[in-house]
Design goal:
The protein is mostly helical. It is 48% helix and 2% strand. The protein is built from 10 helices and 2 strands, in the order H-H-H-E-E-H-H-H-H-H-H-H. The longest helix is centred in the first third of the chain and has 21 residues. It catalyses: 2 R'C(R)SH + O2 = R'C(R)S-S(R)CR' + H2O2.
Length: 254
């Protein structure tokens, strides 16, 4: 009978004890593959390919934002991304050129709501209010960017619709809303915005039987006091000419 040396027997036993467990540990199994696939989805970091759609805040902190899973034709999303969306008619407005203003916007029921303020019976207060309001509005459009971003355009357009609700003279605001419905705000450039507002000013002047305001003299009448840092910075006209051009939004009698 062949005898195996004691050293050889010990070596063979040790080899078997090491080889068998090692082979078992490295043998792939279906459960390990599934685990690897699921774990790979959890990998992240700024350099990884992992991505998920942003989740808007819910509850009392929620912002009026479109669902990323909805179609772009959704009305709320359309109003948020198109500065020229007609909030009253539900269609594109007359303002030429469209852009994308981002995902968040003022809720449509807030923009297109009715006048909030009551009527203002004091004619003197109404006149002073109107002169101040026209000055603010004209200076705003005269300092508006020459090349506005989509967000700039959406902000200006939303402002005018909100202004038409919150103007302290209720009857004046009602008339201004009618004007906006017929002549939507123009926001494509500084010139477009300032000329649009001047035209609206003259519509109000005509209603109040006031003389037409020369839109070419906007810079001469409405001075921003910018010390030469803006194209709208020129000496402010004083006297009768300036007073006659700054009429109020409403009238003493409706």
């Amino acid at each position: 009978m062949l005898s195996i040396p004691r050293f050889a027997r010990i070596f063979l036993v040790a080899l078997i004890l090491v080889t068998v467990p090692t082979a078992f540990l490295f043998y792939p199994s279906s459960s390990n593959e599934a685990s690897a696939d699921s774990n790979s989805l959890e990998q992240g970091g700024i350099d990884s390919d992992h991505w998920r759609a942003p989740v808007p805040p819910q509850g009392e902190f929620a912002i009026d934002a479109p669902d990323t899973n909805t179609k772009a034709s959704d009305r709320d999303y359309k109003s948020a991304t198109d500065p020229d969306y007609d909030v009253k008619a539900g269609k594109a407005g007359a303002d030429d050129g469209a852009g994308h203003a981002g995902l968040y916007s003022v809720p449509q029921d807030v923009i297109s709501g009715a006048v909030i303020m009551p009527h203002l019976g004091n004619a003197t207060a109404k006149a002073e209010l109107g002169r101040a309001a026209w000055r603010v509005l004209h200076l705003m459009t005269l300092r508006y960017p020459e090349h506005p971003t989509p967000d700039d355009r959406a902000a200006l357009k939303s402002f005018f619709y909100l202004f038409s609700r919150l103007y302290p003279c209720g009857e004046c605001a009602e008339h201004f809303q009618k004007v906006l419905k017929k002549y939507p705000p123009q926001t494509s450039s500084r010139k477009a915005a300032s000329m649009w507002l001047c035209s609206v000013h003259n519509i109000v002047n005509e209603r109040l039987h006031k003389p037409e305001f020369d839109c070419l003299t906007l810079n001469d009448v409405y001075d921003c006091g910018c010390n030469g840092t803006s194209s709208a910075s020129v000496p402010l006209q004083t006297g009768a000419g300036a007073a006659s051009s700054t009429t109020w939004l409403g009238s003493a009698t409706d």
